[in-house]
Records
---
Amino acid sequence: MMKKVIMYLNQFYGGIGGEDKADYEPSLLEGVVGPSKALDDMLTAGTVTYTILCGDGYMASHTEEALEKIGRLLEGLEFDILAAGPAFMSGRYGVSCAEVCNYVHKRFKIPAVTCMFEENPGREMYPQSMYIMAGSKSGAGMRKDMPKMAAIIDKILKGEEILWAEAEGYFPRGFRWQIQLPKEQTAAKRTVAMLKKKLDGEPFETELPIDAEEMVPIAPPRDASKSRVAFVSTGGLVPIDNPDHIPSAASTRFGRYDLSGKDVLKSGEWKSVHGGYDQTYANEQPMLAMPLDAIRKLEAEGKIGYFHPWFYTTTGNQTNRVNSVRMAKEIVEYLKADDIDTVIFGSA
Amino acid sequence: MKLEIGNFYVKDIVFGDKTSYKDGILTVNQKEAVEALNPEGNLKNVELYIVRPGEKTRILPIKEIVEARVRPDGRALFPGQTGQMALSGDGKIYALKNMAVTAVGVYAGNGDGMLDMDGPAAELTYFSEMMHLCFKAENTDDSENVYNPYKKNTYYRLGAQLLAEYIGKAVLGQEPQEWEIFDNTTEGAADLPRVAMVLQISAAFVKEPGFVCRLYGQDVINLVPTMLNANELLDGALCADTLFFASFKLYTYDYQNMPLIKELYAEHGKGLNFVGVFLDVNPAVADLKVRASDRIAVMAQMMKLDGAVVVNTGNGHSEIDFFTTIIKLEEAGVKCVGQCMESPGHGGGMQSKVMLDARADAIVSTGADHVVLNLPAMDKVIGEIDSVNHDGYPGAWAYDPEYGPSLHEDGSLVVDSLIIAGHDGNAGWSHKVCKSY
């Protein structure tokens, strides 16, 4: 039973026209045209049933409307995967492919595959929403790129295991996962072999490629006496019975505890569940982890404009970035509701 | 130094009247063995068990794993720890292969682990490929017979080391089946690139001694990075901590058998001049982290190193020590290859390490330390299965909104691989690697 593929093309590859037709609004063509015909010819596990056509200019200037319109065009259709491109080094087309793949993947819960040159700005927009095959710089590479798309689409449609990025030819999507090597390829052997290469000036390949980190700028100083302040911590301090079961490591949740009417946190009423430091001090004196007495003093002296009555806490130990960002966003919603503009961030 | 390890292969272990080794069969007198491991009565309800690969047996909570050995010249197996201080690393020692001596408790803590001898978890660790002579016990002093995650496990650790030494005596007077020679006076090495192994040990973290590694029997809580002859490490100078999590920690067995040292020795005098081991530490205080990495870089320059293998054995803030040390060594002109486990999380989508720095351009990955494992029930449990119901282990839980409790009614488990002893193979055993997806 052949699976159904829908393909997205821009106005040029869809045969609508060149730059003069870049404002072409999304339409749905039953069957194939140009690249979608080429893909259909190559696929063994699927057939291209429809081709979505849209002008690059329209997608760039009316992104939300274009995506919504594509969503409506696809509503009610049966399909198993979305293909888009290849977009080569064309920035607008690459961004369009990434936008459409991300949107359709999320709305219809189906996989999406595109292809572009490594420097295309579309490559890094939504890496986890799609497979982006490493493609050619210009349209002359169409004959090289299309078989790459067909190969991975066939694998996905057949339910075969998708190997790591390098093995399959897609750009890494931000996941790391382990594989087992033959037993004799121990870390000890690999480490010493890599060291010998590095010492000899021979090329070697790290097993953990490291990119430059995404930095968040530090907020400028502000007048605390006019600020609305909250305290958020990854130090793992919780009420003594740990009512929200905050774990000692790899946390996925935070606790939110009412400080109204409290001037101090007492030993025996609070404890640390953090598995990454010696909890003895915090258990003896919880205010080492959450200095409520000092905050109340600053509040009384007018040095803090307003103190938010809730304390937010989780365990930072081994807690992953994805969960950290999600919890931060959830906490921010509570803070926004109380017009908080300053957060004291405590850690372990 | 020249260390000669004489290996005796053990085909099976049985209990019997006289502790002895004959035709590959190790016979253990249980009464004597219990007396040997518990000389001062600090443990109670001590029971011995023999566990073999392939048996449907689950062992937990595991406190320590040691290779059974003995010195024919009478020096203590772990100098300063199981007997009088005497320099290790030189001379002859006998080792019993295919087996380990393993301490098992009832109440779990941070550093405790689990082994399955069959099923999917058995394929994830070399410790499931050997026989275990286990003892299960409780502390006489009840203060650690509780589910506090921080346990010193003093008498379990010492008990395993003493039992290993007692069992080792069974081969005295016999000729080993093979010799492994570790000689760092090898001629011809002098002109080759000078290389050291920088090994992170569990050295800091808590204010009280008793949890971290022991160097010649002494707690290393305030250790300033120091230098060892690699032979000392293979020969009982260092004993394991009870803080680092079971998947990534190095047990005493790992120090005694460290594949990275053996691999560096294999190249010694051929492509490298392996000059020794630097012990790196993981203090919780930033200034001390700076001091530690500075010390490593200074020692490297004094030893005129050309290259170093830098081994990460703790995660979280210990990864800062790992990267900082590599960066300072590289700045000092020492070419480094790091070896570390990664923590990409259950979905694989999180940053692999707490700290990442592109100056660490040569890293070997030992795999992922957070893998969710669904493990079938086993026919037999050595230790206490209820220990997973108390949040004592980093890799098991009494409650989780996504996975439910770790222990199911039928005895099957859902756990994080953090609980599997030796899962990450950080001593160099690992044949796993993380790839980008």
---
Amino acid sequence: MLMIRKSQEKFIRLLVLFIAILLPWVLGAIYLNKTNVNEQIDSLIAVNFKKDTLPRVDHSKYRTLNKEFNTPQEVTEACLSCHNMTAQDVMRSSHWTWSREYATGKGDTIQLGKKNIINNFCIGVTSNEARCTSCHIGFGWKDESFDFADPLNIDCIVCHDQTGTYKKFPTDAGYPTSEEKVFDGKTFHAPDYTLIAQNIGSPTNQNCGACHFVGGGGNNVKHGDIANELNDVSKMVDVHMGADGGNMDCVDCHKTERHNISGNLYSIASVDTNRVSCESCHSEAPHNNKILEQHSAKIACQTCHIPSFAKVSATKMYWDWSTAGQFNDDGSMRVKKDSMGNITYHSKKGSFKWETDVVPSYNWFNGEAQHYVMGDEIDPSKSVELNTLAGEYKDKNSKIIPVKIHEAKQIYDNVNNTMILPHLFGKDSTAYWKNFDWQKAATTGMKAAELDYSGSYDFIHTVMYWPVNHMVAPKEESLQCIDCHSRESRLADLTDFYLPGRDRSISLDFMGFAMIILSAMGVVVHGLLRIFKKK
Amino acid sequence: MKKSTYIYRGFERFWHWSQALLIFFLALTGFEIHGTFQLFGFENVVRWHDTAAWAFLILIVFAIFWHFATGEWKQYIPTTQFITAQFSYYISGIFKGAPHPTHKTIYNKFNPIQRFIYLGLKLLVIPLQVLTGFIYMFYIYPNNPIHESGLSITAIIHTLGAFALLAFVIAHVYLTTTGDTPLSSIKAMITGWEVIDLDEKEERQKNLQHAVDDSAAGYYRMDSNGIIQDVNEAWLKMYHCQDRTRVVGKHFSHTRDERNLKELEELVNRVMQGEFITGHPVTRKTFDGKEGKHLLSANPIVEEGKITGMEGFIMDIHDRDELMEHMYHTVRNSGAGYYRLNKDGIIMDVNEAWLKLYKYDHKDEVVGKHFSLTRRPEDIERLQQSFEKVLNGETISGKLEIRRCKDNSTGKHILSANPFCIGNKPMGMEGFILDITHLYDKT
């Protein structure tokens, strides 16, 4: 009896120990389960967004718009007759000036912008104005003689037309056509100014997209994250603009005050002002998850929430100008397309590489960017960064952002070591697209830009960084931890900090695992020896 | 001497196994965070690792408290004594079946290598892991002018600590198999009980001290001049005295009536000559002036070959006046026998006198056996009842018992029994026996 009681007691004591050891683990598991991030509240509740509402005005009732307009300037005049202070606001905006203040690395402040910067697409505006300025909000910027002070040069309707019928002609320096004309297979009609003037309103995605979706001369060429398809997409492509998502317009985020539209793109912009931020609608801590919130100190929202861009149509990733100027045997233009219809070679422009569903590159960025300014000397032994995003791990204002990197081979002066702005477009004998002579194109272009040209040119590899901000995915599609916290990290190129899961000391790991293996082998050998010697 | 001993207490075992599980779990999740493998998902393991780290921290706080509250921290004081012997044991001795060079006792659970390694873990590796872990948790980004290098140093130290702990675990788990049997150490860490080697001399001294302190038998010691040096609680009780200072330093004559004193003086003289007195019935004079009877044992204290005093035990026999009256003439004893049983009734220790009474030649013949061995079948039940009473905290004194000797002959003795405790918990029974066989034979 006693023995049985004793062994029962012993069993109970062991059971108590067992329970005492396991109980904290059970409690821990319950705790972890309760705090599971998957059961967080829907973060959309935390969105603080309201569409702007403008006073409703029926412009068709205005007598001043109830007449025949012969030129687009007459429409502008009619607009300004009521909105009589607006021209000043418009003419201050970068949509008009194509220029902003820029502090050069040398300590000067200059005017720098679309009008005088060079990129690695069609390179520069100067001497090619009539083509490029088909996306200027004015009429007649065909050369340096354009009058930026004349309010009648403002094109109001390109942004405010609600009929969808108004189009600037691609090569007429910002003018629409006055008669039926064909360009690149598309027919352009003379606009019905009266109809348009009576149907104007706040800019729609089509108004903005007419230029911004097709930058670089075609759909989605430049940005990669904004393209014509955004006019009609599902939220899987863009959770904000998708018809089944936020169904939002450009101006819902790019808030505008007196024609100053917020938003910077650092292919041109350089300072951390007037930016659009996710936090203006979403709270600063929208995740309901401490670890994720902590990440936002160093990771921009876009980094996780834009897992890829160019989700529908392809975007241009590489442009090789050096191969331009080759023709078919019969002397006709050589044009090659890939299976998706993207042009991979054109006699006028050279070779291209396109990509869809592109995984972004990642850069540190603190809101400041540097640019190549015409005339700056380059190091021909290296790739030329036409814009540089400032930032690094140590900088507390820097965050990691997703970036489209566009590379190119483009013309430069290999004696002066400066980039060349070639004269591409024009009806004269030196325009490259007419005569296919780089020497002449360079000479004319550099002269128009008032820069020295040695007479000798070559092609050099250039890089541009285009921050990716659109095509935000639904939250289910956001990046997961291991997209960065793993050996195959998306952030593999950002090596100025220790990233758990990606980084390790290889020598420490080697020694550590060697030590583990040796210990294991040691005890096995020792154990075998003991067994063996005992026998 | 081997003896099953309660060596790991409840909290210690809880702490050990919880710590083992936590280290395993932290290593598993930690190395997934490290990128060594992908198993549970990065987000999960980060949360689990953090939670387990907090749990570990709580456990550490309790463990620190426990170590200081129990004084167990002293087990980790490093020593270089026997450390080379311990190394050479693991390197060569173990293969030749050599004995462990150091002995595990309750007061010295760890060998010198263990002391160094465990102390290193407690003072270096684990604090380093906790510190770097905290930095990892709370120092997220370098928005702090002091740190520019980010997490790399922290991460490298944390990884190094993880490797050290892993290597330790491998060696530690293996070395648990070097006990008496491959599983005995692990079993001990589960049940708390382990058969460990005891230093016989140390143990006897300890037991005697213990017996003297707690025994139902009265103990006394006097110097060669008959001045009382020490008595125990039971002695004081028998003499109805509450204040030890009224006894210690006094001459033994204070303990007798005049008529009984002469007898005692004679007895003392005999002991001082080197004689042993056992089971001698005498009449005492208590401090409140009453009389009592007890059996007395006495032996000389020998220091450096010289008799410097006398000590012995007394056992109350007031209930058995009649019986004891007759003892006087015939008592012939070989000393007070001492025994100790664990709570399962297994004999754990006996002394020489006990062996002689039971006619055994060596202790090994009885240690580890159940006490029923010592009784005739019809008497076992009675002893069992006494045993259970004692385990419930009672003290038994002066009980007449009939013993069964090795050769199945019987003898009679007076038994005292008291529980011995660890903490407040009775862990067994011990006591003395004084032989009265001859007295009975006579009558």
